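Do me a favour: review this protein, sequence plus C-alpha cells, and tell me how the chain folds. Record follows.
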Amino acid sequence: MPCLCVCNLRPDRALPLKRRMQTGPRLSDPGFDLLLNSSVCQPLSGANPSALGWDDPRMKSFIASCDAKAVWKLANPRLQSVNENVVPARHLGTAAVMAELDRRWGHKHEGLNAKYLGGTESRPRIFAVDFFDIRKLNHSEPPEINNLLDEGWRSIPQHSPCVVASERTHNSPMAIHARSQIQRQYNNHEALNTSQKSL
C-alpha cells in the first residue's frame, strides 16, 4: 500500500468533488498516510506584479486540493499533510491571504526560506505541516554559490533570487563577469545548479 500522495490538481482538470468520488481512483479510500500539496504559485507570487490572488481561476487547484484533503481525512484519520506555496504578494494583503489559506487548509502556514537551510537561493515559502513544527528545523550554511556558476562568473548577491520558470519575472538572478563586469541572467545550466541546491 502506498504511503505518500503528491497532490497538484490542475483547475482545468478538476472535476466537481462529488463526481471525482464516483469516477476517480479510490478518492474516498486514499490508501496513503502522507499528503504533499503544492498548488500553482502564480496567483499569489510577488514575482508576478499582476497576481490576482483569489480572483485568479488557477486558485481552484488549491481549493480542489483542500476539498480532496477533507474527504481523504475522513476516510483515513491518520492522514498527515504538508501544503507549500509562495509567500503571498504584498499587494494582495499577505496577512489576509495567509489567514484564508490557513482556514481552507485547516492548519496554520509558517514562513521558511531555503537560504536558511543550506540553499543558494533566497526562496521564501510558506508551509502548513500538521505533524512537525518547521520553526524547529536547524539552520545551515549554503555551499559557495560562485562554484555553481560558469567559470569567471560571480553571483551579485550571496543568495540569488528564486529561479522561476518564467522569462517575465522582474527579479531575475544575475551574474557578473569578474573581468569585464558584464552582467547577465543566469544561463540554464546555472539556474538548474542553483535550484537543485535549494530544493
User: Anything to note?
Assistant: The mean pLDDT is 82.
